[in-house]
Amino acid sequence: xxxxxxxxxLAGLRELLARYQHEYYVDGxxxxxxxxxxxxxxxxxxxxxEYPDLVTPDSPSLRVGSDLDASFPExxxxxxxxxxxxxxxxxxxxxxxxxxxxxxxxPLSFMMEEKIDGISLVLYYENGVLARAVTRGxxxxxxxxxxxxxxxxxxxxxxxxxxxxxxxxEVYLETGTFAELNTRMEIPYANxxxxxxxxxRRSKSSETAKIPLHVFVYEGFFDPPGETHSGIMAxxxxxxxxxxxxxxxxxAEDAGDPEKIxxxxxxxxxxxxGLSYQIDGIVFKVNELxxxxxxxxxxxxxxxxxxxxxxxxxxxxxxxxxxxQVGRTGRITPVxxxxxxxxxxxxxxNITLHNQDYINALELSEGDxxxxxxxxxxxxxxxxxxxxxxNAPLWRMPDVCPSCGAALVDRGAHxxxxxxxxxxEQRKGRLIFFAAKDQMNIENLGGETVEFLWKxxxxxxxxxxxxxPYEKLSGYPGFGERKIERIRQGIENSRDxxxxxxxxxxxxxxxxxxxxxxxxxxxxxxxxxxxxxxxxEGGAAALVSLYGIGEKTAQxxxxxxxxxETRALVDALAAEGLSFAxxxxxxxxxxxxxxxxxxxxxxxxxNYKPRDLAMDEVKKHGGKVVSAVSxxxxxxxxxxxxxxKLAKAKSxxxxxxxxxxxxxMLRG
Length: 668
What we know:
With 668 residues, the chain is α+β, with helices and mostly antiparallel strands. It is 36% helix and 20% strand.
């Protein structure tokens, strides 16, 4: 094939694939079968690899992203990207409409739009091709996230319009998808908005492509601008953008009737729980663009729009300072110290911010005014920034540990201090963790008592707990004879804790109660077997084959059990009488209908959400569960939208079981 022939074929493939993608992701009416689409897409990728100079900025291949790390340079906005004025009652909205019409000197129509609780994004097009995508930032400068934005299927990479223009929209994650994804997160996100923001800022666009982000656009900046906002929305639909079909135009006559405005708001409030996405208000905009120009802007918001905000159990507070804590595993966690605010009957002064991605998603700086909540009525969380402190930069993680001064390292989304043994805060954290109620549950040895024993030099590492010189405690205030005896008794009782409690209490990264359960269920029921796996060549493969343990988790476990410090810790505690082998258990309840079978799962299910519940049934009935398809697999439970596991299982002759058939098997 000549270079010109390749160029011609690629142009045809891009046009056809772009049409198919729009039909599937925007219109919801695909005209091509999945197999035909995949065939064309594979051909496109093959040709682009052979002719890399022919790859264009609008190629559908960009939808899958790249594994190259990407930075997010700052980019200045060329359009006004301001916040909106707020209203909290229907009467306020009607009063604003009346005031705005009076300022215009004539009755006005208004567009009513749902305020999507997502991440604001501005798309800049040059000669019809997406040139860059920029986050809101502080309204004047945002981050260029173009590579990640191109993976969002609803964002057109090329549109049939010449010239340069901008489009503003909101990136969001559907609530059902969020609920499913959040169960897999090491640190669950507070809401879909924060997960969408974190996804949009991932360093590898191939990772962003794995999360099904969506977008609704709500403003277009064209030259010439046109006459009405409703006309701009129609033009955006024609160009292939995703516009919320629930947008509604309010006539000038209806805008003058407060009862009708109140009824419209009430209707949207009632619809809110049934939506597949989250909204936090309703936006009302002047429809006539010429009037918008006359009304203009304040320094904070346009005068031609207002947002009706829903009531929510939140409080507004200001971030005084962001400090960091060093955890028992070395993880560096930022914590916001905020002005005291009462939310749901509790006074909040400290809010955990998890990691840099979490902060980036909020675009948080010290001094910002924020909306805070109590997630699950318990855990404080920053939901969003209400007012930026424009004199402060986006907060950034430090490069060195504040406890020991070691250079910090990045592992996934988190930053760690690698000085495991020499960092005082890590060692103290492991002591507190070991004795905690959810771990060894050593009575009368709470966090404050451990902190005191640490400070006074009585304990420096976990084994020291079993060697406390009790006779030396009596001279300290608050340590009477009865309290000392209760501490001693609690520590002695802890020697009888089973292996399933002892192992996760050591604080070894990745080895929590769930992983311990998986290991024991699959015969890795002593600590010696873990040391043996760490010393063997096939250790990683053996762990990855277990359902619920991924490759990164396996590698981390083996690395920890290869450390001499881990061996020394286990030996010291074993010498104190702690158990490092699980006791034999009685067979699982129920008929053992899956005995001798090995199962894996793929896809989504109606009766098993999350799908791990189906695998729990397999284990309960005598079967073994693995996470990967291999020659040892006997059964694959396949649901809707099954992934690549299905094709591989078919090629290996594995029995494919549907959800309906699986339920029949359980019923006997």
